[in-house]
Amino acid sequence: MLRAQMDTQVSNESIRSGRLPEIMKSMMERLNPEAAYFGPSEGGRACTMVFDMQDSWTLPTIAEPLFQELGAKIEIQPVMTRDDLDKGLSALQQG
């Protein structure tokens, strides 16, 4: 799961220049998220995306556009679906 808090001044400029929709479209195409949410958080713009990150080497391709183009602070943390949790707990019980 990705959570990004965009810098207000940088994202304001991205809106004025028309880049914000392009950046978000590119991010959505790259991540193909299961869910994506956009709204205010901690007094600024934010987005949360749930996506399947297959390999850790893709992290720079995910984070850098947000850092460089939106001055964002980001968090990426692993999360599971209910099915994933069931598989994990089953494997745990089997030893």
Structure description:
The chain is an alpha+beta fold and 95 residues long. The chain has four helices and four strands.
Please provide a brief summary of the model.
By secondary structure, the protein is of the alpha+beta class. The protein contains four helices and four strands, in the order βααββαβα. α2 (19-31) runs antiparallel to α3 (59-70).
Keywords, please?
alpha+beta, 95 residues, 4-stranded antiparallel sheet
What is the strand and helix layout of this fold?
Blueprint: E1 2-5, H1 8-17, H2 19-31, E2 35-41, E3 44-50, H3 59-70, E4 73-76, H4 82-94
Antiparallel strand pairs: 1-3, 1-4, 2-3
What Rg do the Cα atoms give? 16 Å
Poorly predicted regions are none
Strand tally is: 4
Sketch the topology as an H/E string, one letter per element. Answer: EHHEEHEH
Summing up helix and strand content along with how strands pair, one would put the structural category as: alpha+beta
Report the helical percentage: 40-55%
Q: Main beta sheet: strand number and arrangement? A: 4 strands, antiparallel
The best one-word shape is elongated
Strand order of the largest sheet: 2-3-1-4
Query: How much beta, percentage-wise?
Result: 15-25%
End-to-end span in angstroms? 28 Å
How many H/I helices? 4
Overall average residue pLDDT: 95
